Amino acid sequence: MNRDLKVTSNAFKNGEMIPQKYTKDGQDISPPLTIKGISNQGESIAVIMDDPDAPVGTFNHWLIWNIPVDKNNIPEGVYQDKVVESLDGAIQGLNDFGEIGYRGPAPPSGVHNYYFKVYILDRKLDLPYDANKNELVDVADKYKLQMTELIAKYKR
Hints:
Blueprint: E1 6-8, E2 33-36, E3 44-51, E4 59-68, E5 73-74, E6 83-84, E7 90-92, E8 112-121, H1 133-143, E9 144-154
Antiparallel strand pairs: 1-2, 2-5, 3-4, 3-8, 4-7, 6-7, 8-9
């Protein structure tokens, strides 16, 4: 973790419930994220959202990478495209629903924690859009300058 790097959302505070709008019970759109304290050596941002409380083990909800560091205010409702033109060609990978882009919380029971992990990387990553979480993490760990996370909770 890096003390200087911070990720926040104006939709919820760290450790609080994520609004239904951003879940499968609502509009199922990605929440807005703001990233501050990015290293001057940073070139790109990667975001992984997952649920470690899923019955099947950690379940991935969103993979997006190659966001330019000057696009550090990620708007809500990022389109579920392989290439996100509004974020200067950022790439979205396959979530554990087998889909491209964001899919919101839908826990079968109880309160689940959802981690928005943000990586600041010293380069853009040469990964295909259908890369999975393990492939993204393996490459991101090699080029990571900073990392932080934001946690949301949700219960149906």
